[in-house]
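PROTEIN DATA CARD
Card holder: Breast cancer anti-estrogen resistance protein 3 homolog isoform X1
Chain length: 670
Origin: Salvelinus namaycush
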Amino acid sequence: MDSLKKELEEELKLSTDDLRSHAWYHGPIGREGAEALLERDGDFLVRDTASSPGDYVLSCYWRDEPMHFKIIRVVLRPKKGYSRELFQFEGDRFDNIPALVRFHVGGRHPVSQASGAVVYHPITRSLPIRVISERQAERPDSNRSSNSALDRVGVESQPDRSKRLSFNSSHMDTLHVTNTLLRSGSQPANLENLGRRPSIQSAQSESNLRTGAPHSCQSEAVGPAPISPVFRTGSEPLISPSALRHTRPSHPGGGVTLRGSDGQLHPRAPPKPFRVSTFFPGTPPNRHRDDPYDELVIQVPESKKRGHVDRLRAEEKWQSRARLTETSFSFLEAQESGELPGLPIDGQVQEEEEDSHFQRPQVETVSCFRLDQFESLLLPDNNRPLDPTVLMALKELFTRSNAMTTALHILSVDCQVARIVGVTEDQKRMMGVGSGLELVTLSHGQQLRQDLLERHHLLSLGVAIDILGCTGTVGQRATVLHKVILLAQALRDHAHNLYAFSAVMKALEMPQVVRLERTWRALRRNHTESAVMFEKNLKPFMNALNDGDDSVVQGPLAVPYLVPLLRLMEGEEGEHTERGCQLLYNTLQAARNAALHAPQYQEHAHSLLTGDWEPIPELLEGFRTEFALRLFWGQTGAAADKEKRYDKFDKILTVLSNKLEPSEEFSPEL
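Structure generated from the sequence above:
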């Protein structure tokens, strides 16, 4: 026992992605053995399925009865030589079964919508998998109900071969299977008989035969005609909208109701239903009454108004299910070749009517920053670059506003530019999506990506001008630096705007600002808490975002960190490092999350902007991109080439920095 205990401990120490490292995995334990361990609602375990090697079953107890759900294995083959396995029940897919179980146990998500079964109490094993496998091998018949059922049929009843089997007879004779090779219900036997007329025995075996009991229902003798030559085996999950579970009733005379999943009746298993109902709503179900596993219906979300992204998502989900538990979808291959066969789909006409209103998204070629239509409350006509009177007015506005108020004003303008709030129906039709967070991930969102990159850089330049434009004492510049750090904290923790937060941090890490040795020293002396927060909190947080680590983000967001994606898709990404592939993956994953969670971001941003705060028109204008363009380069220079404008302004910042502290570069450290 000590050796077994040590072996079990070694198994549980394996990687968490390995099934053997989880005590709720019981290996090749049979159905009856699993049901004996389940006692109360919420109990569950995962076991192998003997009829289909490589597949797994979740056995659980819910509402006073055991249930068995076969885990659906989805094999993705995006290109030759590469494949990826995903696992699911009805909803989300996961890379491994432990992640799937954690999702349903931790979040109390039901395994299936029809049953409502929730699992939360694991039944742990006390022996290593090797011992369980050896014990199961000693009694192989314990795992297959088909063998035990066949033995009962052979012992309790003997066939009368002198009688002629007939469809019209009111009392059917018992059926004795002599070929032992046809006893497994997990495989479609005798596929060479496809297209041939079935014999009398095989025809009778496809009906609901009862040994030793009269045939009580004539309608059950004739099953529905199969619509596909692909057989359904008892070991595969039945994907059907039906929600009823049926058990085998007992009959007098020692008879047993036999079913196709038992595998001992006939050389030809019951026909498998063609699995199109999950992809085409309204398809009539083809449910076999006595399936060995509880039903799973893959949930396909539907939208009332199908936009461009909705159509792409539906097509991707449809094509990604090319193989579900080793089932071949021939109609998918036909669709790829342009020869999709006509299928009886009830909802097809309605779907085509909805698609008739689809409009192709428009590709924007003009920036949303319209200088010719911009009317300013602060700038005079034909203003000069960096007008001192305008800069003084801005400083007074920032002095009267605290960091939280300023952060909400920046959030308001950012949400308008990124099209997170205030998106009209016309804009949605033009974009083909519901928000700019989805548009920036698509090819026709190039103009919006360029506008967001432009605004991000201008926000950084504005913060740098606020610091370097302070020509007072070193203590006054340290105070300005302190307020900028508080603004960065408010953008992250109060406005939940990581886009603007990264712009402020970019300004604080500019070489022209970093080299101000005396200013940073005064900050550490006069505003120690701000200096510590910047070095120990804000900078590591920003570095984690740049590395693609989303785990540092806590709580809801209004505007996610979009800059790496924008730069990647516009070809402005920096030099590649050893972690280049991982960074690329993290960036693309963050883009996917931003598009998928766009409605949550929109809702949270709307709640923040409709809360208890009063917008100041002059302060809102001070954060508009058109205002920054005219303030930095003047009325005429704002329309110049972007690269030339940036290069010229960088030289101006260098001159201002050298004028404030004419010394060598200094990197502030605590």
